[in-house]
Protein 1
Amino acid sequence: MKRIGFVLIFALITLYSCEENTAYKEQLNDPELFHSAMKNLTDVIVYDIFSPPVASRVYMYPSVAAYSIMQKAHPEKYNSLAGQLKELKAIPEPDNENIDLHLASIHAFTTVGKQLIFSEQKVRDFQDSTYQNLKDKGLPKKVYQASIDYGEQVAKHILDWAKGDLYDQTRTYSKYTIRQEDKFWKPTPPDYMDGIEPHWNKIRTVVLDSANQYVPVPPVEFNLTAGSEFQKQLMEVFEKGQGVDQESREIASFWDCNPYVSHHRGHAMFATKKITPGGHWIGIVSIAARESNNTFDETINAYTYTSIALFDAFISCWDEKWRSLVVRPETLINQHIDEQWAPLLQTPPFPEYTSGHSVISRAAAVALTSIYGDNFSFLDTTEMEYGLPARSFTSFIHASEEAAISRLYGGIHYRMAIDEGVTQGQKVGEFIVQNLRTIK
Amino acid sequence: MKKLVVLIVLLSMSCAKETISEMPLFVLKDSSIGISFENNLTYTEAFNPYTYRNFYNGAGVSMGDINNDGLTDIYFTGNMVDNKLFLNEGNWKFKDITVEAGVACPNIWSTGATFVDINGDGLLDLYVCKSGMPGGKNRHNELFINNGDLTFSESSKEYGLDIEGLSVQAAFFDYDKDGDLDAYILNNSVRSIGSFALIEDQRIIPDITGSGNKFLRNDGGKFIDITKESGIYSSKIGFGLGITLGDYNNDSWTDIFISNDFFEKDYLYLNDKQGGFTEQMESYFESISMGSMGADYADLNNDLLPDLIVTEMLPQSLERQKTKTVFETWDKQQLAKEKGYYDQFSRNTLQRNLGNNQFLELGRQSGVAATEWSWGALMFDADNDGLRDIYISNGIYKDLLDQDFLSYEANDETIKSRVSKKEKNIIKKLIDKMPSKAISNSAYKNLGNFQFKDASLNWGLNEPSFSNGSAYGDLDNDGDLDLVVNNINMPSFVYENTTDTLTNRSVALKFAQSDLNRNAIGAKAIIKYNNQSAYSDNFVSRGFQSSVPPEIHFGVGSEKEIDSLLIEWPDGSRFVLTNLKTNTTHLIEHPDNLNENKVDFYNYITQSSNFEEIDLPVNFAHKENKYIDFNNERLLTQMHSNEGPAFDSKDINKDGIADLFFGGAKNQSGKLFISQGNTYKEITAPFETDASSEDTDALFFDADNDGDQDLYVCHGGKAFSPYSAALHDSFYINENGEFTKSKDALKFTELISSSVVSASDYDKDGDLDLFVGERFKTNTYGLPGSGYLLQNNGTGLFTIVENKALKDIGMITDASWVDIDNDGWQDLVVLGEWMSIRIFLNKNSELIETTDSFQLDNTSGLWTSLHIVDVDNDGDQDIIAGNIGLNNFYKSDMRMYINDFDGNGFREQIICQKNDGKYYPIVTKDELISQIPSLKKKLLYYKDYAKADIHSIFAEDLIRSSKILDLNILESVVFWNNNGNLDSQILPNEIQYAPVYTITSTDIDDDGNLDLFFGGNQFLVKPQFGKYDGSLGWTLFGPYNAENLKPEIVPLGIEGQIRNLEWIQNNNDNILIATINNEKPRFIKFKNN
């Protein structure tokens, strides 16, 4: 008994001395903490190789989890997403006074993220080092435990919600059966990979009513006769698609964002991995948030808002891709014009119309403009770690326009897919801005 | 007048040797013999497998007697090291004379080498191919002319052979029979492989830089480039790694086989006898190797027809396949095929020569399909037992295709951080991380009949290594062939063959003729002894980048003397010698005035067929609908949606000519052909309404006892929803020759995809009743189907008899009624895939399962056909059952687990291979994850998947609740009925070359013995398992019974996926109808002689 008493006293002393150290609080208010969690998620997405639409899903759910908890900390400033996002119910209330909602928010974010990626250890390592760091800075155990518990609870809530989006079911839906006619999409060199996500339009949208809420005008009628509109657009890709000048080559490479490019050297082969187009826009969010000196909660809001726009934009775009099934320019050029022609960028493995970059960049730009305004100039350094120089833009719309046209310079899209893609993205973005209210 | 001068020189007699029982056949010699050669490679940032595609292709070995002392000398090429020439001084003593001889080729990447007497002076010259980076002194191929004093003079320019490129190997032969040696120079394209799309007809565009393949004609000592004129391709997609000479069409003229690496198909150039070649690979071979490497062409079964082996890179174990191999996907392969790149597969191929310009690919059945990253293949009689064995050298110093390396190491993630840190030697460091594993070379002892036994270990050839070029030759003149192997980054192997040549004897032939082709390259020889015969030819460039001495070696077992030797000289003249001693080297000299061809050489070789194809005016071509099973069931090995056409024939109008019904595939109407004299009337009307169904079986029978033939058609297939009305079977009633579809004859209460209908009056009430079998559930392969018993009320109206015994019995493919126990009641035999052959005895019209009492309960197979007949003519009915056979990657102890493994409402089927009592999925990690994405986390790395058995992948309760099906037997079998016991006998080897989809029988040659006919093949198989195309239809001529298990077997010569074989009566002719999936039927007559 005596011994237990001693231990107890010792424990109390320890506890007391810990309470002195409150450096952790500062840390938990630092938006960089959330930026680092998002960066960790991006790195794992690159490592695990997710296709662009799937990556947008991996960004969206963790962000919503983080936002939902953050909103509890600032109910005066933010609206709940429950009722605003399709089938999302209100998260459980925090019922323990020890909960630190920022920590819970980080934990919910990483926990949901961990479920959606493959290399869990990389997220676990991030959690461990982050939590250890906070503990070192005096994070009390009870606060830690209560926050983690709450974060888990909300993560589960969000994952349960995610389960209803038909993602699991669509994994085993039929593969696309290749159609022979010239006008239809076929796998492209060098790997002739299967078409990616032919059933992505079955995925539940979160703000849009449905995948086909904004169906673009049909593609230009397939016609290879010289002088036809289609043929003219094809020739434009043929002429510009290997990069007409340094500037266009730089633009194309900057916006390549192909998560997996393979390079063959005889039997030897290696691959380059990059962020997805959605990942690039998540990078732009981090630049904007830092440039605006956003607080922890503002940072989460910006990420969440953009990730939702990206998610719905991908569904809308993929719906059109697998409806119109337009053949890639590379296929036609090799077949009819120049057998040896290869585009500047590697053609990604899905149908051409509309351009994913155009749709999602515009939707993201509209969303970001609603937060940061029209004339927000920034230096985009997102691709620097992939060996590409930074580019500067006068506005988000400016960046999205460059992203769109980059696909023509890269030799992988016709002009129609870019123009109509931008229109489609604009509509998706506007709908989201009108229907999703995060800031009160 | 004409005097044959035949000089037989006894060059050497073998010396007796004691074999120690533990001693392996081949003993590795150590450096004390005076040979030390290591092909050492070091990669740098600038020069490595990424910058030079063929970095790890290794070097070669050439053997020949350079000083005519009767001892075979050895030349090794080196890539980054100097080449070396070792003079054989006898008694396993060699001397390095490279420097004096002047054949080191320093500082240039040497590849293939060939000893050949180019100038006809009786001395072997040496031709060395060069590759690697451009530039450097003597970067071109070099021709070293033998000065006769152990020195050589480089004279390539003088001869026009100073070719420069990525040269691999050269082959010299007299292609135009003008007495001198012409040259094929195999050059690998300089173009990077990554920049190719699958574009049609690339091979016909010559590489204008001149670095493509070359064919040169010898015009008086000067080699003239006639590549284009002679029809040889010299394009940028020529990635040739092997030149394999021989006579592929038995016309005595030398043809050329080029094995091409990567996506380009191999070439078979047939000599047109007019100075050129025509490429005809596709008409000779069905399946070929994808990344074809080395090859060899020699007779493996002593039918006097050489067979072809081509090596590839498939690892031996499933575990290594899962980590080291990237297989093509179905879609990619189809696309390549569409673009003209044919049926190429990631495995070695062994092509059995049938004569008649047809080859059958048997690599899987022979067990030689997977020998790791393979280079040289050599076929020689290692143990002098009279059958050539197979030796394959293999190894890749760095595992370029390691999947984990590709996915997680060889990527930007790693590279980018190094670039950003401005690190040096980024590629070099990447290569440092590539896995490297030395593995055993492969040797297969020939057991005859295309059966081989892995002998790598027993023969002492299992030293782990990275081996490339290899050559055989008798280095110690003891009558057996020794083996030399060039290795990367380790000493070369020199193996002494320790065959006891007193008991296993041989005969060696050397040749001499007076023209410029002194050693008679291209001469052919047949020996005959003791009712046996054997064939060989005198080509020296063999295997990979290597050459053997210009001589022929026959193992002859214990034979002391051979009866006769037939020689065909390169100029086409022939003669015969008799009574030659074995264990002797015979020098055969070409007589001066040998200009007649009295000796028939080819009558021994060419097979004449008694089957002749004829034409019938039947306007029907089966057209399979395009449906890809794999797009829904990603884990299947093959499709099952192409099992038509359905077929039956009866003489409907009783005019003595059989009338024919052909069923259509989905979206194709069936057609009935009623004979009208020499033509047929086509009837489609009643069948058109069922065009949306897939006809899978058809049966004419008199349902309503009105004396005419009514028709039952099964509707099945896989390309349907389980709720599709198109699955309903149809019954067409014949009223005065008019067929109309009966609306109420059939009363199925559920939709089934049916596969078979069989009629019998099983209840002895005077009308024909039916058995109908369910093939499978259309959306889940693996779930059992049921049998249905349709009882006839005498007017062609059927009721389904409830019978629990027939419920859920399996994936039924065929069924037949037969009174197996001779009790006067018709019993039922049913078989199918992943199920046993099941027997239901008819006890007073009650069907009772008695499979186990016939001891058939462990006969689960992939059964596809059934034929019941008295094969052995003993008065009772025997059962012949067609199975998938052995020419595939199935194993007889495989197991299939069926369950909804990811709980998404769809069931998956996981086929597993058994290793050490555990079950490992046979599909690739990517396939498994594409069907069950939730596994990706568990199976992040390929190496994890490679070691994961079913229990480590799925939770116990999931495995417990799975439906589990086992296989027991893959062979097609006959069950002899011996007084009611069924004794199984595996059908002859040829029948096992392909799945058997149809069996029929008749005594076609009127010898009183029943003859059997087998047809099959299945082409819609995933690339990693490879299409099943080993059958051209077979005839097995009776008598076939327990006393005569080796009947004569003759191919019918029908290409394609045969689905029915049926002999029909056409006036007084017997005509064999072969229906073929997605093609027109074929008609064949038999000429009795």
Protein 2
Amino acid sequence: MTETTTLSVPVTQGDEDKYKLRMGPQHPATHGVLRVDLELDGETILDCYPQVGYLHRGFEKLAENRTYAQNLVLTDRLDYMAAMANNVGYCEAVEKLLDINVSERAKFLRVMVCEMARLTSHLLWLATHALDIGAMTVFLYAFRERETLMELFAELCGSRLTNTYTRLGGVRQDVTHEIMMKLDRFVNEFPACIAEYETLIDTNRIWLKRTVGIAPVSAEMGLDLCLTGASLRGSGVDYDVRKHMPYAAYDQLDFEVPLGETGDIYARYRIRMEEMLQSNIILRQCIEKMPPGSIVGDDAPDLIMPTIPQKKVTPDTSAHQGLIKLIDDRNVYMEGDVYVATEVPKGELGFYFVSDSKGKPYRMHIRSPSFIHIGALQTLGKGVMVADLIAIIGTLDVVLGECDR
Amino acid sequence: MESIRIAEDLEKHFPDSILEIQVHRGQFSAIVAQEFILEMCQFLKEKHKMNHLNCLTGVDNLTRKGKHFERFEVIYQLYSIEHRVGLRLKAQVKDSDNPCIDSITSLWTGADWLEREAFDLLGISFNNHPNLKRVLTPDDWEGHPLQKTYKLKGNTEWSGFTDLKEKFKQLSQFDFQNTHVQEGTQAND
């Protein structure tokens, strides 16, 4: 006979009837390392406590010790589904803080990559959300189109996920004729692909049962929970940063902001499908209106690394000082603070910068939509079934890299 | 109504609390005292329809000079979706050793996690907050990482890591792989 060892699990007095379940952090439907501590009565959730921080890398602290140009690579690691959109958001904020002008062509290129990123993110959202609810085929279909876009990213800047495509004052590489031709072909074909996804799920009885009327959010509740992006627009609130505070070339483009009425999971699904069509329209306009010219603004800071002499100079420090000095000569740093928001696929991504007239940000705060959406899960998850919680996590479209920072 | 008009209206209603109105790169912000922050946010939300809380965060002003700056300040970025206008409030928290300010979770439930984050990373406490616990770092973390006195690099290890290693040892007592093999052989017999 062998001795059996058991782990002692303490049960609080008076809580014996509640079933405690720890969902995650390795649960496939939590889209990363999200842990949700549940208190259950049967299969109904009494209380729901999301726990985050498993992916916390301290970007805000790191940013205070790196120059503005160096911080750009950190933003790739926020929402790794749409790194391009984060790059644009960061650069727009720094350009506002340091008063740098962007060239016209770079503005259109930024809009172009932003909308491509929105498509990749929404396609991944559709694929995984459908997979969570039980529709496998959509996953394969959506990844087919996403692959086309990812290869275009690779052709444009050399990487698929962590792009680091933008620069302060412009973008890193210009588009080639081949890329534009490929994108043009994609834009022509894409509306038919969306119609194809819709035939799979739009009137599917299981899909409708799992989404219609589940977790409805009213407009007041959405604003109270500080939701943004498609999650808020599903409730009928007309708030899109691209329209409210236009950045890059969005004020020169013609597009609509789809709005929902009911605020349930199905409404948010419809919003994102409509948004993909609108992104397609924006991409079409970008191809047609793409102005010629330089991809970097004329007064953009000269961020070329100073050549390191062959003497005994540690490369690290000389490069740091060089970067700071080059900008300091132009005297662009001023004391002050700005908050600049951009519309990324997940919602409103804001950067709050405090500058103390030195080469590094004094304080950089990232207002990440995923963090706030997971916070709202505590309210939205109360009183629903465990299976619906999966659908709610899916519909809020969270990514933990952005949440934990 | 423009941001500057709203800031002036705020100053009219709370004359003693507004210390200064600033503008930087076209963005207006009001430096305010911490006493009536909840009332000010409520005033802006109800009268000027600033129903969207963009951002709530804190700043450690230890190495930054300014006329009205206290050691800690809390930033409230508000926006009116209806009027398409925004305003930033910068509340100065007086007590530098034990910073404490009123919570605005009664106005926005979404401020809950943002205030927890400010508490976690900067050590600013919020009165009347329903659940003021750490959010991004573990519960037993020492210090508040975004304070300027907190070093970027150090040689100490998180205390919870030893517990974690203990737990792992406890788990490894269960010989999952062997149990599986034994059951398998029994089934074959």
